[in-house]
Amino acid sequence: MEETDPVQPYAYFALAVLTATSFLNFADRQIVSILAQNIKTDLDLTDAQLGFLLGTAFAVFYAVVGIAMGRIADAMDRTRLMAVGLALWSAMTALGGVATGFTTLGAVRMGVGVGEASANPCSHSLLSQYFPARRRAFAIGTYIAGASLGGAGALLFGGLILQHWRELCRLVPAGDACAFPSWKAAFVIVGTPGLPLALLVASLREPARPPRAPTPLGRLIATELGAAVPPFTLISLYKVGSTRALAGNLALIAAVVAVAATLTYLTGDLIQWASIALGVYSIISWGQVLHFRDRPLFQLTFGCPTFKLAMLSAALIACINAAVQAWAAPYAMRSFAMSPGATGVALSLTFVLAGGTGLIVGGWLTDLWKKRDVRAPIWMALIGLLAALPGFAMMLTATQPFFYVAGYFAFSLFASAWAGAYAALVQDLVLPRMRGAAAAAFSLFSVVVSAGAGPYWAGKVSALTGSLATGLLSIQALTPIAVIVLLFTARRLPRETLVGRRARAEAAGEGQGVIAAYTPA
Fold first, then answer.
1. What's the rounded mean pLDDT across residues 363-372?
2. Contact present, 116 and 85 (Cβ < 8 Å)
3. How is the chain split into domains, by residue range?
C-alpha cells in the first residue's frame, strides 16, 4: 500500500475482527490471574508455582513455536494460520477445566502458548498491509487495545464466575455442573468463544504480497520448527551452516544448561529454569540458523544493533508490567479481603479504561510526534515507564481499596501508552517481506523475558519473604536498566533510514529486482 493511498473500509472491518482475536488472546492468557487464589488453595501451590503458571508455562512454548510462526506467516495464508492458532489456544484454555494438579494445569497452559504464537506475527503483518505507514501505529495500537479489553474481560468474567458459580451452575442443563469447581468452570466458559470466531478469522481477505518461490507447507513447517526446537536445531545448523556454527551451538547448549542448573540449585525450581533455558536457547539458535538461511532478514533484525536494543528495552519494560498485572488481583484480594467478584469488576473496569486509553492515545500521539522526530516511539516508552511509577507506589502503599484501584489506574494508563508505538517501530525497521518474522522475533523475546521472568520473580521473592508487596517492589530494580537501554536506542534510531535498510539488505544478498518492487515502509 502506498503512503498516499486512502484506507479502505474493509481494513477497518478486518481491524475489528483481529481486535476481537486480540481480546480473546489476552483473556485466555490472563484468566489465571483472577483465578490464582482459588487455584492455589485447591491445588496447594506456592507463590513461586503460581508465578510459573501466571507466566512461564505460557511464555516459553509461545516463544519456541512462535519463532517458526514468524517465517511461516511470511510464506503462507496468514488468516488461516491465525484461525488455526485461535482454535487451538481456545481449546487449551477450556481444557484447564479438567486439570487436576500443577503438572496438568501447566501442560494446558503450555498448549495455550503454542496456539497464541500465531497471533502477533499474522495480525501485525496483515495490519501493516491493510493500513499505510501514516496510520500503522493507530491500527496496531487499536489491535493491542483489544488485549487490554481482554485482560479486563478475564478479570471481570473470571471474578463474577468465581463468586456466582453456585447460582450459574443451575442453568447448565446436563450433568452435575454444581460439583464442578468455580475456577475450572471459568476456564471452560472463557475458552469456548474462540472456536466460532476462528471461522470468521479464516474468512478474512489475504492481501497480496511480493511473489516468492513456492515451498510445500509440510517442508516449510518442518524447516522452521527445526530452526528452534532441539535437537533438530543441530541438524538445521549442520545443513545450512558449518562445523564452526555447530560447535558454537553445542557451546550454547552447555552454557544454558550450566546457568539453568545453577539457578535450579539455588531456587529449587527445576521446571521454571528448564523452561526458561529452552526458550532462550530456541531464540538464540533461531538467530544462528537465520544468519545462514536468510542473511538480509538477519542483518535487519538480530544483526542490527538498533533492532536488538529496541527488543531489549521493550522486554525490560514488559517484564515490570507483566509482574504487576499478573499479581494485581491476588494482591488486592490478600491485602483488602476483596471478594473475587468485587476485585474483578474494579480492576477490569479500571484496566479497560486506563489501558485502552493509553494504547490508543499513545499510538495516536506517537504518529503525530513521529512526523517531527523519528525517535518518538522511544520517548513514548520512556515517558510511560517513568510516569507509571507514582501509580505503582500508590498501589503498594494504599490502605483502602479505593486508593489501590486509583493507583492501578495511573499505572495501567502510562504502562500501556508505548506498546502500539513500539510495535509499529519494529515494522518500520524491516522490509515488507520480513514483517511477520520481525514481529515474531520482537514479541517472542519480550514474552520470554517478561512473562517468563516477571510473574515468577515477584512470586519467588514473595515466597521467600512472605510479602507479595516486597516481591512486586523488587521487580523495579529493572527500571534504571530500561532507561539506559532506551537512551542508547534513541541515539541509534535516526541512522535507520529506508535507504539504509534496503542497502544493508541488498549487501546481504537480497535480490535487486525484489528490492525495487517493495513499497516504502
1. 86
2. yes
3. 9-205+294-517, 228-293
Q: Tell me how crowded residue 419 is: count the other CB atoms within 10 A of its CB.
A: 29
Give me the torsion for CA of 72, 75, 76, 78, rounded to 10°.
70
Let me know: does 283 contact 421? Beta carbons within 8 Å: no
Report pLDDT digits (tens) over 154-164. Answer: 989 999 999 88
Give the Cα separation of 53 and 29 in Å (integer): 10
Q: Which CATH number fits domain 9-205+294-517: 1.20.1250.20, 2.40.50.100, 3.90.1150.10, 1.10.8.60?
A: 1.20.1250.20
Which one, of 116, 67, 120, lies nearest residue 90 by Cα?
116
Whose cell is 490478600? That residue is 334
Dump pLDDT digits (tens) for 222-265: 777 777 777 778 887 877 767 778 888 889 999 999 999 999 99
The percent of the chain in helix, strand and coil, each rounded to the nearest 5, is: 85, 0, 15
Phi–psi pair at 475, nearest 5 degrees: -70, -20
How does pLDDT run across 385-434, given as a tens digit for each residue? Answer: 999 999 999 999 999 999 999 999 999 999 988 887 887 888 888 888 78
Q: Which residue do the cell numbers 533510514 mark?
A: 497
Report the alpha-carbon distance of residue 491 to residue 375 in Å, rounded. Answer: 9
